[in-house]
Amino acid sequence: MAVAKYSLSTWAFCRRKLSVSVGDGLLLITVSCKCKGTTLTEWIEKIENCDSVAAIEEIRIAVFGKKGVLAKAFAEMKTAANEEKAGIAKELNEVKAKLNSALNEKKIVLETEALKVAMQAEGIDVSLFSPLSERGATHPVMDTMDRVVEYFSNLNFSVETGPMVEDDFHNFEALNLPKYHPARDMQDTFYFKDETLLRTHTSPVQIRTMMNTKPPIRMIAPGSVFRRDFDITHTPMFHQVEGLLVDEKGKVSFANLKFILEGFLHHMFGDVEVRFRPSFFPFTEPSAEVDISCIFCEGKGCRVCSKTGWLEVLGCGIVDPNVFKAVGYKEVSGYAFGLGIERFAMLIHQIPDLRSLFEGDVRLLEQFR
Domain extents for the chain? Predict the structure, then answer.
């Protein structure tokens, strides 16, 4: 071995001969002189014996710090002969890489062990019952929506959905709403600059379903709708469920519609009287408003029913021929109905102000657990 002025056993250069050998896969360097210091294998042993991340950090600073042994060794390499510097630098870099690898591996092991200990100490047994835990509940609007959808699903009505941003054709024109109809006014509908709008009812879903499906059709369309109203009984956003049944001409009558709706209202409100009042909707003819006997005064007359003994709950009718014409249907008949979910929720849960359903007041919502 060539003569060198560096002794890795002391991490310093000295004017002594040194020899290099390989053992246990590690670079071992011995010197002919007896100098005090730490060999590579001893540094590895120190690292392996560390029991904390802090101890690993102390060794890292001692070896790789600005004043560490490696920094000193590289600094003193300038005293070596020029022809020996390359060899010494190579050996130092190999030692540096081995120590760095040993430090990182041990640090990962210690951090993993520390994490396990922390998780065990901070762990919560989620299987334990806690009397302090609070039970959640479905929002009254969604609960009512689920009940309506479940009822009609059991009658083999499919559930259809559609976009909330609609165009004039699907929201108005195809539903036999003329250009001069008040519902098209800016005061009642949210319009966008590109002449699209936020749907004012879920009826466009019926139009899209009929345009993409051949009869027979048996469907409901639940979802959010938007109108420019805000008072004790109106909000800018609310929920509707609209139903549609279409079959061959002569197979669907108002009697079928009446039977379906009476059964539905008895399911939602119990033993109430149901009446159908003649009304007008552009998309049905004949049309009717459906009332139930007041569930608060049992038909005797109170403030809620304005002393009439009746509560209006939904609208319905036989589909107007102009609607079928708009979607290309011929020789068919059908009926349609629509209801406001918030209206049903207010009646079922006796909530006086519709706006309170959307204010997020926990004092109200926690009553429905």
Answer: 6-122, 140-368
Ranges under pLDDT 50 in the chain: 1-37
Query: If you count DSSP H runs as helices and E runs as strands, how many of each does the chain have, helices first?
Result: 11, 13
Tens of pLDDT, residues 224-265: 999 887 766 677 888 999 999 999 998 999 999 999 999 999
Token pair belonging to 103: 């430090």
User: In this structure, which topology does domain 140-368 adopt according to CATH?
Assistant: BirA Bifunctional Protein; domain 2 (3.30.930)
Q: Which two tokens stand for residue 249?
A: 């001409």
What's the pTM value of the predicted model, to 2 decimals? 0.61
Please say whether the beta carbons of 262 and 255 come within 8 A. no
C-alpha closest to that of 288 among 301, 274, 271? 274
Contacts of 319 (CB under 8 A, 6+ apart): 244, 246, 283, 284, 333, 334, 335, 336
Cα gap 240→243, rounded to integer Å: 10
The CA distance from 111 to 107, in Å, is 6
